Amino acid sequence: MQYRTLGRTGIKVSPYCLGAMMFGAVGNPDHDASVRMIHKALDAGINFVDTADMYSRGESEEIVGKALKGRRDSVVLATKARLPMGVETGNVPADPNAQGASRRWLTRALDDSLRRLGTDHVDLFQIHRPDPDTDIEETLSVLTDLVRAGKIRAIGTSGYPASDIVEAQWVAERRGLQRFRTEQPTYSLLNRGIEREVLPVCERYGMGTLIYSPLAGGLLTGRYRKGRQADTHRAQFGFRHLTDERRLDTAERLIPVAEEAGLSLTHLALAFVIAHPGVTSAIIGPRTMEQLDDLLAGTKAVLTDETLDRIDAIVPPGTDVGRLDMDYAPPALERPRLRRRVPEERPAA
After folding, report:
1. Which residue among 73, 155, 186, 247 is least packed, with the fewest CB closer than 10 Å?
2. For strand 48-50 and strand 208-211, is the pairing parallel, antiparallel, or unpaired?
3. Contact call for residues 213 and 324 (beta carbons, < 8 A)
């Protein structure tokens, strides 16, 4: 592995990061099999592992914790918090405060993650999507305290728009707080929108980037073809991005590019992502050992300028072909009332 520096943290990480979302009930419920996959990835030179509290409701973190016993010091460990973790029990509703980026929740969420991971600190703690209900100064303030307490080495974001990243950097500078050192956006052959603003902003502020869904949510594995219904684990969740005709058409056009480069579509997709100078590491998220073996087999692939030019001709730089279902959308795009002016009430005659 040719290790890269994670932004300006001084931390060296592999260009591929092992994502743990598929370890647990949502993906592979076999803990022993998942532990073996983590060990195989580490033995192959991957030293970066990313998980989150909401992956199988903490089960992923527990599996990662088991796998890292005796190997924790050599691994750069990242996790995330922000998304709902409350559970309804009987007639008792879920705790509305078991989520978000407030001081109240993040302090508890981090302690819960550390317990499940079996460690006293994480190397990277990320806010798992923006929280419009919490002032960014509140979030940075608590994260600063947690860094000073030794529970976190660096802080980052996931799915943040460029404007939110810039605002957070300015607030950190003005208030003397810890600043976000990384961003985790989606980036793939089909989703190149971050080339327009997010990647340039991250480079400007010296932030590292962990790319999620470099295989476009599974669409670039080669198992999803136009006119053919794929029988895969992901297909059962009904993701719309797997049946988007525009995305399927584009994937078909990319297959000959991969073949002429002597690569599978999967390996072309991974090599494309890490070829960008603004990308630090691409997250691979296998569910089975077979998938991991295939992903590891493509880690040495390098694309020529000719191949990259052909990709640019199919998906122009800075453009997206459709979108991933799990992409962050600002509240105003999801709630009509936030983008429609309410008529003023007229006094009764």
Report:
1. 73
2. unpaired
3. yes
Number of H helices, E strands in the chain: 11, 10
Q: Which of 277, 288, 317 is nearest to 34 (CA)?
A: 288
What are the catalytic residues? 55
Distance CA 78, CA 64 (A): 11
Phi, psi values for residue 15, rounded to 5°: -70, -10
CA distance 327 to 258: 26
Q: Which of 248, 245, 278 is nearest to 15 (CA)?
A: 278
The DSSP secondary-structure symbol of 346 reads P
**8 Å CB contact between 285 and 19:** yes
Termini Cα distance of the chain: 77
pTM for the structure as a whole:
0.94
DSSP letter, residue 225:
B
Tens digit of pLDDT at every position of the chain (349 positions): 799 999 999 999 999 999 999 999 999 999 999 999 999 999 999 999 999 999 999 999 999 999 999 999 999 999 999 999 998 888 788 999 999 999 999 999 999 999 999 999 999 999 999 999 999 999 999 999 999 999 999 999 999 999 999 999 999 999 999 999 999 999 999 999 999 999 999 999 999 999 999 999 899 998 877 766 665 666 556 677 788 899 999 999 999 999 999 999 999 999 999 999 999 999 999 999 999 999 999 999 999 999 999 999 999 999 999 988 888 888 888 889 889 887 777 776 6
Q: Strands (DSSP E) along 10-109, which ranges? A: 12-13, 16-19, 48-50, 76-81
Q: From residue 100, give the alpha-carbon distance in Å to each of 24, 85, 138, 139.
A: 23, 10, 11, 9
Q: What is the CATH number of domain 4-339?
A: 3.20.20.100
What does the alpha-carbon distance between residue 343 and residue 346 come to, in Å, rounded to a whole number? 9
DSSP-derived pairing of the beta strands 16-19 and 281-284: parallel
92 DSSP 8-state letter: B
Q: Name beta bridge partners: 76.
A: 48
Find out whether 181 and 141 touch, Cβ atoms under 8 Å.
no
Helical axes 245-260 vs 265-274, angle rounded to 10°: 90
